[in-house]
Every structure is written in C-alpha cells, then in structure tokens.
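> agent: user asked for a holo structure of the chain below bound to zinc ion. Plan: (1) validate sequence alphabet, (2) canonicalize SMILES, (3) run complex prediction with ligand conditioning, (4) return tokens. Step 1... ok. Step 2... ok. Step 3 dispatched.
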Amino acid sequence: MFKEVIGYDLICDGCGDSYCKNTEYFCYASEEDTEAFATEYDDWGIHEKKHYCPDCYKEIMQPIWDDVAAQEEHDYKQATR
Ligand SMILES: [Zn+2]
C-alpha cells in the first residue's frame, strides 16, 4: 500500500534553484537534514538566515571575504611594522 510522506528541499534565496534537483535524492526527511547535507557536502551557504546555492553564496560573500582578508592584511602590517 502507499503512504504519503512529507519531504523537504532547499531553495536558493538568491536564484530560486532547488538543492535536491541537483542531487540524487528527491527530498530529505527534515529541514535540519536538508540544511546539513547542503551546507556540509554541497557548498551551500547560510547568510542572515537565508540559504544560498554555491554560486549565489560566493557572489554574496566574496566582497565580505575580500574585506576580511584586506582587514587582516592591514592588521598584520600594523602588527609587524
Ligand atoms: Zn542561487
């Protein structure tokens, strides 16, 4: 017999892409599982409580990462002067 179950997918808040569409799974059993698999194994990211596919995450975070790197370099130069 058949039983209907609820499954979860993760949708990118940037481009609307589906996480599960790009994996071998149709869906995951819980929101927590979906988030864990996406972020730990497939480079999805979370920023300000929104989920982003690898491409969108990089696009959003790159300026922030660059700022952090520039700040660290600045601090390093100050410290070693
Ligand atoms: Zn995206």
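> agent: step 4 complete. Summary for user: Residues 20-79 form one domain. The helical segments are 31-41, 54-79.
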